[in-house]
Amino acid sequence: MTPFKVIIVLGKSGSGKGTQAEMLAKEHSFKIISSGSLLRARAEQNDFVGKGIAEILDRGGLIPTPIIFHLWLHELENAREANLPAQTGSGVSGIIFEGSPRKLYEAYLLQEALEFYQLAGNMQVLHLDILDAEALKRLLARGRHDDKENQIRERLRWYKDEVMPAVLYYKEKGNLIEINGEQPVEEVYREITEKLKDFLGK
User: Fold this and answer.
1) Is 155 one of the annotated binding-site residues?
2) Does 18 belong to an annotated binding site?
3) What's the CA angle centered on 188, arms 25 and 120, to 5 degrees?
4) Whole-model pTM?
5) Residue ranges per domain, the chain?
6) What pLDDT, on the 0 to 100 scale, is given for residue 80?
7) Closest C-alpha to 7, from 129, 177, 123, 100
8) Chain centroid to CA 182: how far?
């Protein structure tokens, strides 16, 4: 039997967490759960919830955590069902939460859910660590319309205030793996796979 695995990838804007999540998912048959992608897809559905999400996204607001959590659970259950064929060498071997949880409260909720699904003991958290100066340099070089310096600095402050408490929570639980995110993409991935070698080989 192939155990169902859970990997959480956290990091500042510009840390490359999306790229690393995609590389891991492709090589190891993981399904990526990205809150942004889930919300955008749900917003396209022309019902009460979809319209409500679209309205909040359009004005740049924050979606309530219970709504996001509901989407997570739906994807988690679907991925667990898709894991059944993995026991014979195909299908989904696990999930990657890319960029989530984003708050300590969300980390608590997710932990309770993983315990219910009997997955809490088969989880690892990657923290792609980069300095604020490196994040700023990368994001300015990217040149997106929402990558103005003042906006980037605000996102970095938000990460420190909101996401870092969740990172520290996982560190205290013994699930956290620190990754040097300032290396080239290939070197970051090499460090990740080396540190996850035993976990991925289960």
Assistant:
1) yes
2) yes
3) 50
4) 0.87
5) 5-200
6) 73
7) 123
8) 18
Question: Is 14 marked as binding a ligand?
Answer: yes
50 a known binding residue? no
Q: Is 174 annotated as a binding residue?
A: no
For residue 39, give the nearest of 108, 105, 102 by alpha carbon.
102
Give the fold, CATH level 3, of 5-200.
Rossmann fold (3.40.50)
The shares of helix, strand and coil residues in the chain, as percent rounded to the nearest 5, are 60, 15, 25
Give the pLDDT confidence score for residue 92 in this predicted structure.
75
Q: Is 93 annotated as a binding residue?
A: no
Determine whether the annotation assigns residue 88 to a binding site. no
Q: Is 80 annotated as a binding residue?
A: no
Which positions of the chain have pLDDT values less than 50? 85-89
Q: Is 144 annotated in some ligand binding site?
A: yes
Residue 31, Cβ neighbours under 10 Å: how many? 18
Residue 138 known to bind ligand: no
pLDDT in tens, 94-112: 899 999 999 999 999 999 9
61 is in an annotated binding site: yes
Q: What 3 state SS string does 130-149 have?
A: CCHHHHHHHHHHHCCCCCCH
